[in-house]
Amino acid sequence: MIRNSLIFLAFCFLPFFALLAQKDDNPTLLSDSLNIPEADTSALITAKKINELSKIALVSDIDTGMISFHYYNPAYNESFAPQILGNTGSSFQNIVFNDRPSQSAFIFANPLLLYFHNPYKQLHYNTRRPFTEVSYVSSGNKTTSEQVISALHTQNFNKFTNIGVKYDLIASRGVYLNQEVKSNRFSLFGSYDKDNYSVYSSVSSNKTKALENAGLIDIPAFLLHQANDPIAYQMSLYDASSSLKNVSFFATQSYRFKKTVSDTSSVKSDSLEVKREKDLPFMVNHTFRYDRYSRAYSDAEQSIDSLSFYPNQYYNLDAAYDSSFRQVLENSFQISGDEYKFLPGFILGIKHQFTSYSYLYPRQSSIIEGETVRDTVIASDFATNYNNLSVYAMLLFNKKSSITYQGKAEYYVAGYRQNDFLADFSLKYKHKASNTSISATGKFYATEPDFFLKHYSSSHFQWNTAFPKITTSSAFLTFTSGNGTVYAEGGMSLLGNFIYLDNMAMPAKADKNILVTSFRLEKKFSWGGFNHIHKLILQKVNHEVYLQLPLLAYGNTSYYENAFFKNVLKFQIGFDFYVNTSYYADAYMPATGMFYRQDNAKLGEYPFLDGFFNWKVKRTRFFLKYTNALAGLAGHNYFTTYGYPMNPGSIKFGLSWTFYD
Fold first, then answer.
1. 588: helix, strand or coil
2. What does the radius of gyration of the chain's CA atoms come to, in whole angstroms?
3. SS3 state at 98
4. Cβ partners under 8 Å of residue 327, min gap 6
5. Which of 140, 257, 199, 232 is nearest to 653 (CA)?
6. What pTM value is reported for the model?
7. HSE of 645 in the Cβ direction (CA atoms, 13 Å)?
C-alpha cells in the first residue's frame, strides 16, 4: 500500500515537472475534445485498418483524446451497459441485444473476445518517426490489486514498409474469493504498400486464465451486507479454473492492375512519346487466416463447495477436466472493380474454410459383472473436420454524392454450413447543406447453429441435438447530425429458430419467433467548458421466456474541461452515471464459459456512479477515478450478472505516454 501511494504521488507531480521539461514544438498526434488548435501531425503518422468486407485498408483515427481514456476496462469501451462478472477482464455480455455478435468463431470464447487482438481491429501505421505508446493502470493493495498495461511500438523501415508490436495485460485479483483473472495478448504486425501492390499481416497470441467461483452462495446475506469484508462471503466453487487460448495468423495482399500508355500531351513533337502507367479499375485480393481456439475447465469438489451447483457429474471422481478446440484455416480470393460514372463498384469472391472441432469428454459407462462402472481415469477424444466453401458478391457506390449504397450476399455451397445464406444492405442519404445523414440498413441470415450447440460432452454437460438453421431478419433506420451531437437509431429484429441456454444452461430452441424492437438515442451538449453526453436504449422483446433484456438503459457522462499554461496542461473533471430497469439478467456457467437464462431474481435499478479527473500534459495523459461511488449509500444490489457482485468503491490511477523521437 505504501509503495502504491508513493507511485501515485510521483505521478501526480509528474505533469508539473513535464511542463518545464517538454518543449512547445513537440506536436501531439490528434487534438482531443477541447477546441484548441494543435499541430497537424498527419505528415508524421497515419493509421489504417483492414475492412472485413472489402479487405481494403481504410484510414482510421488514432485516439489520444482524454474523454475515453479513463475507460480502462475494455468492457466499457465496448458498451456503456456491460454485463460482467465484477472485475476487469472477466466474461462480458452486452445488454444491448443488437450489439451482440451475430456470428461466432468459437462459441465458448464469445464472452472474452472483446479483450482479444483481432486482425480486423489491428491498426497498421505509416510513420516518419518511431512511435511508442505505453499505458498503465493500477488500483488496490497487494491482495486485491488490479493492473492494466498496454504497450505499442511501430516504425517504418522506409516510406512503404512498417512493422510493429503490441502487448496488453490485465491482471485483476478481485476483492471476492476465487475471482482472479489474468489476460495476456501479444501481436506482431507489419505492412508493405507501394504502387499497385500491398500486403498487411499480423500474428497474434491471446490467453486468459481465470479462477471460477460460480457466484455467491447466499445472495440475501450480501444484500443485507452482513459482513463488511468482501472476502467473507462464500462462493459456490472453491477450486475451479478455466483458460482460453487463441493463436491467429493473418495476411491479406492486393494487386491493382495497371497498363502502360503513351502520353504526348506534354511535348510538341508527335515523334516523342512519354510512357506512363495508368491504373485500371480492377484489383485482385488474396486473404489467408488461421485461428486456433482452445478452452479448458477444471474443478475439484471440496467439502465447502455448494454440492448442488452442478446437477450432473459424469465422472465418479471428485475432479473434472474438460477441453474443447476449434481451428479454422481460411483462404479467400476476390476480384473487385472501381465505381465508374453511374456504375457501382463490385466484389466477386470465393472462400474456403477447413474447420476442425474436437473436445475431451468422459468415457461412457460400461457393465462389469452386472454393475454399472464409469471409467474415471481415461477420457475420450471426439474430433471431426469440415470443408466449408462459399461464394459471395458485393455492390457498392460510395462516391461523393448525396446517396450511397452497399449490398452483400454470401452463400455456402458445401461443408458444415452448406446452404447458409447471408445478405446485408445499406442505403445512406446525406444532406450536403446541413451535413446530416439518414441511413437504412437491413439483413437476412439463415445460418447453421454453432457446432458446439449441437454436439458437446463434458464432465457436467452433455447434449446431442438436431437444431434447424437460425434465421435473423432485421431493419434499422438511423439519423446522424452534421456535427455529431445527435445520433438516433430505431428498428427491429425477427429471430426464427432462436437458440438460447435455458435455466439448466442447456441449449434449447424457442418455439416461437422472437421480435426485438429497439430505439437508441445519443445526444451531446456543450456550454462553455461544460459537456454532457446522454445515451438512452429502449428494448422490447415479445417472448421474454426465451430472451430477457432491460426495457430501458440510460448512461450519462458529464464533465468540465479547461486548459492552463498556454494550453499545455488540459484537464477534465466529471462523472459517469449508468442505470437500467430491472430484469432477469442472465447467469453465468463456469463449466462452459457462457451466459444462460435464470428466473430466480431480477437485477437492475441500481445507480452506478464513477467520478473521474483526467489531465493531459503535451503527449502524456493521466486519470484518477473512483468507481461505484454509491456502493452502500444506494444499497448493495450492485449486480450486473446474477450472483456476481461488482467491486465496491475503489480508486484507480492510470497514465499513458506517447512519444515518437
1. strand
2. 27
3. helix
4. 290, 291, 292, 293, 355, 356
5. 140
6. 0.87
7. 27
Contact 332, 352 (CB under 8 A): yes
Residue 349 · residue 332 · CB < 8 Å: yes
Cell of 233: 462471503
593, 108 contact by CB (below 8 A): yes
Q: Which residue has 473533471 as its cell numbers?
A: 573
- In the block, cell 477534465 appears at 572
* Percentage, residues of the chain above pLDDT 70: 85
Q: Which tens digits make up the pLDDT trace of 155-205?
A: 999 999 999 999 999 999 999 999 999 999 999 999 999 989 999 999 999
For each of the domains in the chain, give its residue range(s) and CATH number, in order of start.
2-659 (2.40.170.20)
CB neighbourhood size of 97 (10 A): 16
Q: Is 635 exposed, middle or buried (0-12, 13-18, 19+ CB in 10 A)?
A: middle
Cell of residue 435, nine digits: 451535413
CA dihedral 558, 564, 569, 573 (to 10 degrees): -20
Question: 289 is written with which cell numbers?
Answer: 487466416
Q: What is the DSSP string of 225-249?
A: T--SSGGGS-BS-SSEEEEEEEEEE
Low-confidence ranges of the chain (pLDDT < 50): 1-40, 268, 306, 364-378
Cell readout for 312 is 450432473
Length of the chain: 661
What local confidence, expressed as pLDDT, does residue 55 receive?
Answer: 87
Question: Residue 282: CA atoms inside 13 Å, Cβ hemisphere, count?
Answer: 7
